[in-house]
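Notebook entry, structure prediction.
Reason for the run: the old model in the group folder had no record of what sequence produced it. Starting over properly, with the input documented here first.
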Amino acid sequence: MNSDIDQNDKIVAQVESRTLYASDLDQIIHANTSKKDSLALATAYIDQWVRDQLMTREAARYFASDFEIEKLVDDYREKLLKFNLEERVVSMRFDTVIERGELISFYEEMKEQFPLSEPIFRCVYAKYPRDTENLSEYRKHLNDENYDQILDFIRLNAVQSQIDTMIWFREGEFYEWNQDWSPNRMNKGQIQRQNDQDYEYFLKIVDRRDIGTFSPFNYIRPQLTRMLLHKRKQEILEKYKQDLYESALNNNLIKIPQ
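New structure, fully documented this time:
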Protein backbone atom coordinates (compact mmCIF):
# COMPACT_ATOMS: atom_id res chain seq x y z
CA MET A 1 0.00 0.00 0.00
CA ASN A 2 2.69 2.49 0.96
CA SER A 3 4.19 4.03 -2.19
CA ASP A 4 7.23 5.42 -0.35
CA ILE A 5 8.61 2.11 0.88
CA ASP A 6 11.13 2.24 3.71
CA GLN A 7 13.54 -0.67 3.47
CA ASN A 8 13.19 -1.15 7.20
CA ASP A 9 9.38 -1.04 7.04
CA LYS A 10 8.00 -4.36 8.22
CA ILE A 11 5.58 -6.34 6.05
CA VAL A 12 2.52 -7.26 8.13
CA ALA A 13 0.43 -8.96 5.43
CA GLN A 14 0.66 -9.96 1.79
CA VAL A 15 -1.77 -11.25 -0.80
CA GLU A 16 0.10 -12.22 -3.97
CA SER A 17 1.80 -9.01 -5.15
CA ARG A 18 -0.14 -6.69 -2.84
CA THR A 19 1.61 -5.80 0.40
CA LEU A 20 0.59 -4.14 3.64
CA TYR A 21 3.32 -2.49 5.71
CA ALA A 22 3.52 -1.59 9.37
CA SER A 23 3.60 2.09 8.46
CA ASP A 24 0.16 1.70 6.89
CA LEU A 25 -1.23 1.04 10.37
CA ASP A 26 -0.18 4.48 11.60
CA GLN A 27 -3.48 5.93 10.38
CA ILE A 28 -5.49 3.85 12.87
CA ILE A 29 -3.16 3.66 15.88
CA HIS A 30 -2.54 6.86 17.82
CA ALA A 31 0.18 7.66 20.30
CA ASN A 32 -2.15 7.57 23.33
CA THR A 33 -3.63 4.17 22.40
CA SER A 34 -2.76 1.41 24.88
CA LYS A 35 -0.64 -1.52 23.76
CA LYS A 36 -3.59 -3.91 24.16
CA ASP A 37 -5.92 -1.71 22.13
CA SER A 38 -3.23 -1.10 19.51
CA LEU A 39 -2.82 -4.83 19.00
CA ALA A 40 -6.59 -5.34 18.69
CA LEU A 41 -6.92 -2.48 16.18
CA ALA A 42 -3.98 -3.70 14.12
CA THR A 43 -5.27 -7.27 14.05
CA ALA A 44 -8.74 -6.18 12.94
CA TYR A 45 -7.34 -3.84 10.27
CA ILE A 46 -5.00 -6.50 8.86
CA ASP A 47 -7.81 -9.06 8.74
CA GLN A 48 -10.11 -6.64 6.90
CA TRP A 49 -7.34 -5.63 4.50
CA VAL A 50 -6.65 -9.27 3.59
CA ARG A 51 -10.34 -9.93 3.00
CA ASP A 52 -10.63 -6.82 0.81
CA GLN A 53 -7.65 -7.90 -1.30
CA LEU A 54 -9.12 -11.37 -1.77
CA MET A 55 -12.44 -9.82 -2.86
CA THR A 56 -10.63 -7.58 -5.35
CA ARG A 57 -8.65 -10.54 -6.66
CA GLU A 58 -11.80 -12.64 -7.03
CA ALA A 59 -13.72 -9.80 -8.71
CA ALA A 60 -10.98 -9.42 -11.31
CA ARG A 61 -11.56 -13.03 -12.38
CA TYR A 62 -15.05 -12.12 -13.63
CA PHE A 63 -13.77 -9.61 -16.15
CA ALA A 64 -12.41 -10.89 -19.45
CA SER A 65 -9.91 -8.05 -19.85
CA ASP A 66 -8.56 -4.86 -18.35
CA PHE A 67 -10.65 -3.02 -20.94
CA GLU A 68 -13.86 -3.98 -19.14
CA ILE A 69 -12.54 -2.71 -15.81
CA GLU A 70 -11.28 0.50 -17.38
CA LYS A 71 -14.66 1.04 -19.01
CA LEU A 72 -16.41 0.63 -15.67
CA VAL A 73 -13.98 3.06 -14.06
CA ASP A 74 -14.42 5.55 -16.90
CA ASP A 75 -18.22 5.30 -16.70
CA TYR A 76 -18.15 5.84 -12.96
CA ARG A 77 -15.74 8.75 -13.30
CA GLU A 78 -17.98 10.43 -15.90
CA LYS A 79 -21.03 10.02 -13.67
CA LEU A 80 -19.14 11.36 -10.67
CA LEU A 81 -17.83 14.37 -12.59
CA LYS A 82 -21.29 15.11 -13.97
CA PHE A 83 -22.91 14.78 -10.54
CA ASN A 84 -20.40 17.14 -8.93
CA LEU A 85 -20.78 19.67 -11.74
CA GLU A 86 -24.56 19.61 -11.39
CA GLU A 87 -24.25 20.11 -7.64
CA ARG A 88 -21.94 23.07 -8.17
CA VAL A 89 -24.16 24.68 -10.82
CA VAL A 90 -27.25 24.31 -8.63
CA SER A 91 -25.51 25.64 -5.51
CA MET A 92 -24.35 28.75 -7.40
CA ARG A 93 -27.72 29.56 -8.98
CA PHE A 94 -30.35 28.00 -6.75
CA ASP A 95 -32.82 30.28 -4.97
CA THR A 96 -34.73 28.57 -2.16
CA VAL A 97 -37.03 31.53 -1.51
CA ILE A 98 -40.57 30.81 -2.74
CA GLU A 99 -43.16 33.56 -2.67
CA ARG A 100 -46.63 32.55 -1.49
CA GLY A 101 -48.19 33.69 -4.78
CA GLU A 102 -45.86 31.46 -6.77
CA LEU A 103 -46.70 28.51 -4.55
CA ILE A 104 -50.43 29.12 -4.88
CA SER A 105 -50.13 29.28 -8.69
CA PHE A 106 -48.21 26.02 -8.61
CA TYR A 107 -50.94 24.52 -6.42
CA GLU A 108 -53.65 25.54 -8.89
CA GLU A 109 -51.64 23.89 -11.65
CA MET A 110 -51.01 20.66 -9.72
CA LYS A 111 -53.98 20.21 -7.35
CA GLU A 112 -55.79 17.67 -9.54
CA GLN A 113 -52.91 15.30 -8.88
CA PHE A 114 -53.67 15.29 -5.16
CA PRO A 115 -57.15 13.85 -4.48
CA LEU A 116 -57.71 12.97 -0.84
CA SER A 117 -57.63 9.28 0.06
CA GLU A 118 -59.25 9.93 3.45
CA PRO A 119 -61.33 12.73 5.06
CA ILE A 120 -59.43 15.59 6.67
CA PHE A 121 -60.62 18.22 9.13
CA ARG A 122 -59.95 21.64 10.63
CA CYS A 123 -60.86 21.88 14.29
CA VAL A 124 -60.73 23.50 17.71
CA TYR A 125 -59.73 21.14 20.51
CA ALA A 126 -59.15 21.62 24.23
CA LYS A 127 -58.56 19.48 27.29
CA TYR A 128 -59.39 20.91 30.73
CA PRO A 129 -59.22 19.77 34.35
CA ARG A 130 -62.79 18.97 35.38
CA ASP A 131 -62.75 21.59 38.13
CA THR A 132 -61.97 24.44 35.71
CA GLU A 133 -64.06 27.52 36.54
CA ASN A 134 -66.56 28.88 33.99
CA LEU A 135 -66.35 25.73 31.86
CA SER A 136 -70.05 26.00 31.07
CA GLU A 137 -69.46 29.47 29.59
CA TYR A 138 -66.76 27.99 27.37
CA ARG A 139 -69.17 25.32 26.13
CA LYS A 140 -71.66 28.01 25.14
CA HIS A 141 -69.11 30.00 23.14
CA LEU A 142 -67.99 26.87 21.30
CA ASN A 143 -71.20 27.19 19.29
CA ASP A 144 -70.15 30.64 18.06
CA GLU A 145 -68.42 31.07 14.71
CA ASN A 146 -66.17 33.76 16.22
CA TYR A 147 -63.59 31.93 18.31
CA ASP A 148 -61.90 35.05 19.68
CA GLN A 149 -64.04 34.89 22.81
CA ILE A 150 -62.75 31.46 23.78
CA LEU A 151 -59.11 31.64 22.66
CA ASP A 152 -57.95 33.44 25.81
CA PHE A 153 -59.94 31.01 27.94
CA ILE A 154 -58.27 28.08 26.22
CA ARG A 155 -54.80 29.58 26.56
CA LEU A 156 -55.31 30.25 30.28
CA ASN A 157 -57.03 27.02 31.30
CA ALA A 158 -56.44 24.16 28.86
CA VAL A 159 -53.69 21.66 29.61
CA GLN A 160 -53.73 20.60 25.94
CA SER A 161 -55.23 22.38 22.96
CA GLN A 162 -55.33 22.96 19.21
CA ILE A 163 -56.63 26.39 18.22
CA ASP A 164 -55.07 26.99 14.80
CA THR A 165 -58.05 26.55 12.50
CA MET A 166 -55.86 26.70 9.39
CA ILE A 167 -54.28 23.30 10.11
CA TRP A 168 -55.81 20.17 8.60
CA PHE A 169 -55.86 16.85 10.48
CA ARG A 170 -56.59 13.27 9.59
CA GLU A 171 -59.37 11.66 11.64
CA GLY A 172 -56.94 9.22 13.22
CA GLU A 173 -55.01 12.10 14.77
CA PHE A 174 -58.05 13.08 16.83
CA TYR A 175 -57.95 9.73 18.61
CA GLU A 176 -54.46 10.50 19.86
CA TRP A 177 -56.16 13.23 21.95
CA ASN A 178 -59.05 11.07 23.10
CA GLN A 179 -60.05 7.52 22.16
CA ASP A 180 -63.80 8.05 22.59
CA TRP A 181 -64.71 10.55 19.87
CA SER A 182 -67.70 9.44 17.82
CA PRO A 183 -66.84 8.97 14.11
CA ASN A 184 -70.51 9.75 13.31
CA ARG A 185 -70.12 13.28 14.65
CA MET A 186 -67.23 14.49 12.50
CA ASN A 187 -69.16 16.85 10.24
CA LYS A 188 -68.64 20.59 9.88
CA GLY A 189 -69.98 22.52 12.88
CA GLN A 190 -70.46 19.51 15.11
CA ILE A 191 -69.14 19.56 18.70
CA GLN A 192 -68.12 16.60 20.79
CA ARG A 193 -67.52 16.46 24.51
CA GLN A 194 -65.88 13.60 26.39
CA ASN A 195 -64.73 13.26 29.99
CA ASP A 196 -62.94 10.97 32.35
CA GLN A 197 -62.20 11.12 36.06
CA ASP A 198 -59.86 14.09 35.78
CA TYR A 199 -60.47 15.92 32.49
CA GLU A 200 -63.05 17.16 30.02
CA TYR A 201 -62.30 17.09 26.29
CA PHE A 202 -63.88 19.29 23.63
CA LEU A 203 -63.65 18.96 19.87
CA LYS A 204 -65.40 21.17 17.32
CA ILE A 205 -65.13 20.44 13.59
CA VAL A 206 -64.60 23.74 11.79
CA ASP A 207 -64.38 22.30 8.28
CA ARG A 208 -64.21 18.96 6.51
CA ARG A 209 -62.95 17.69 3.15
CA ASP A 210 -64.01 14.27 1.92
CA ILE A 211 -62.35 11.47 -0.05
CA GLY A 212 -61.81 12.30 -3.72
CA THR A 213 -61.85 16.09 -3.30
CA PHE A 214 -58.68 18.09 -3.94
CA SER A 215 -56.25 18.40 -1.06
CA PRO A 216 -56.36 21.92 0.42
CA PHE A 217 -53.38 24.18 -0.20
CA ASN A 218 -52.25 24.27 3.44
CA TYR A 219 -52.49 20.50 3.75
CA ILE A 220 -50.00 19.77 0.96
CA ARG A 221 -47.95 22.97 1.16
CA PRO A 222 -44.73 21.20 2.35
CA GLN A 223 -45.02 18.69 -0.50
CA LEU A 224 -45.67 21.45 -3.03
CA THR A 225 -42.62 23.34 -1.77
CA ARG A 226 -40.39 20.28 -2.27
CA MET A 227 -41.81 19.73 -5.76
CA LEU A 228 -41.34 23.35 -6.78
CA LEU A 229 -37.75 23.43 -5.51
CA HIS A 230 -37.03 20.23 -7.44
CA LYS A 231 -38.59 21.79 -10.55
CA ARG A 232 -36.34 24.83 -10.13
CA LYS A 233 -33.27 22.62 -9.89
CA GLN A 234 -34.19 20.79 -13.06
CA GLU A 235 -34.82 24.07 -14.90
CA ILE A 236 -31.44 25.41 -13.78
CA LEU A 237 -29.68 22.28 -15.04
CA GLU A 238 -31.57 22.20 -18.34
CA LYS A 239 -30.72 25.85 -19.01
CA TYR A 240 -27.07 25.24 -18.14
CA LYS A 241 -26.94 22.24 -20.49
CA GLN A 242 -28.57 24.23 -23.28
CA ASP A 243 -26.16 27.15 -22.81
CA LEU A 244 -23.25 24.71 -22.84
CA TYR A 245 -24.54 23.10 -26.02
CA GLU A 246 -25.04 26.40 -27.84
CA SER A 247 -21.59 27.61 -26.78
CA ALA A 248 -20.02 24.41 -28.10
CA LEU A 249 -21.88 24.82 -31.41
CA ASN A 250 -20.71 28.41 -31.77
CA ASN A 251 -17.11 27.35 -31.13
CA ASN A 252 -17.28 24.42 -33.58
CA LEU A 253 -16.64 21.87 -30.84
CA ILE A 254 -19.44 19.61 -32.07
CA LYS A 255 -19.24 17.66 -35.28
CA ILE A 256 -22.04 15.33 -36.35
CA PRO A 257 -21.37 13.76 -39.73
CA GLN A 258 -24.44 13.64 -42.02
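Summary: Helices lie at 35-60, 66-93, 100-110, 135-141, 148-157, 171-174, 217-250.
The old model has been moved to the deprecated folder.
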